[in-house]
Amino acid sequence: MKTISISSKWKAAAETISQETGIFLVVGVPDSGKSTLSRYFIHYLTHAGRITALIDCDVGQTHLGPPTTLGMMLYTNPTDPCDTLKPHHMRFIGATSPAGHLLDVVVGTKKMADKALNSGAEAVIVNTSGLILGVAGAELKLNKVDLLCPKYIFALQESSEIEHLLTYLEKRHTVSVFRLPISARARKRPSEVRRRFREEKYRDYFKESQIVKMPLSQVGPKGYIWCEERNVRIDAIKNLLLGLCDSEDCLLALGILQEVDLEKRSLHILTPLSSKDGKKVRTVQLGEIKIHPDGQEADVHSAL
């Protein structure tokens, strides 16, 4: 926290939620300082002795879990990490942008917020993605507000870039909006820098992986529809990113498809999944990108 520039308005916001319980949303355009503000809230609240949860919804630049996932972490100590590949709970989205996956993102965020509250969290900080402009961005944020019913929204903006959305939310009288300045150290990151961030995460995540076999029958219905719509066979999509999920659709581990044995009806998957969690896998969900074992990322659409 010593390296973070904290404005007086940020401090006032932290003091406000330190007296409250419930769900609090952090919103803003990309690179406006949402993750920094969320970390500051976690630091402030845990120092005050509050049990706090952080949900990271930025599937492309997440700090809780690997890219393409939503992550949730419960905090009781200021020294607990706000950047980890192994948060307490994850949901698989399978893409590096919420676009095209709005329902999965909203439902997944709600499920993790419920888990956080049921686990004793007094405050749940939801660090939303940077998708907020345009029709898709507005739809994502409005539906998230409708489902989560946050007590406060903390909006970071440089001038008035998201004012139209904030004004609409205030007219509904269901949530209070705090307008906050962006961090003085916030910097725009080019797409190549954001891509390198993801690929470093993939490399770290898969570095101690091994091949496991899963029944082909565990591929969920969305996976078969995905293949049908793109006119591809699953056995032709080597290095496709997979989500290995339990009976509640919680992500146990990511995997990379290496081979499909059609004769034995089995999937050969490179994954860091533990043998203990392997027994909990109920469904294999298909992602929308390819990940090479060295972490290199490729768009499936361009590879088909």
Reading the helices and strands in chain order gives HEHEEEHEHEHEHEHEEEHEEH
CATH fold descriptor of the largest domain? Rossmann fold
So, CATH architecture of the largest domain? 3-Layer(aba) Sandwich
Structural class: alpha/beta
Q: Terminal Cα separation, in Å?
A: 45 Å
CATH class of the largest domain: Alpha Beta
Main sheet attributes: strand count, strand direction, barrel closure: 7 strands, mixed
Q: Tell me the strand percentage band.
A: 25-35%
- Could you name the ranges where pLDDT drops below 50 across 5 or more consecutive residues? none
What overall form do the CA principal axes indicate?
globular
CATH homologous superfamily designation of the largest domain: P-loop containing nucleotide triphosphate hydrolases
Strand order of the largest sheet: 4-3-2-5-1-6-7
Counted beta strands: 13
Question: Roughly how many Å is the radius of gyration?
Answer: 20 Å
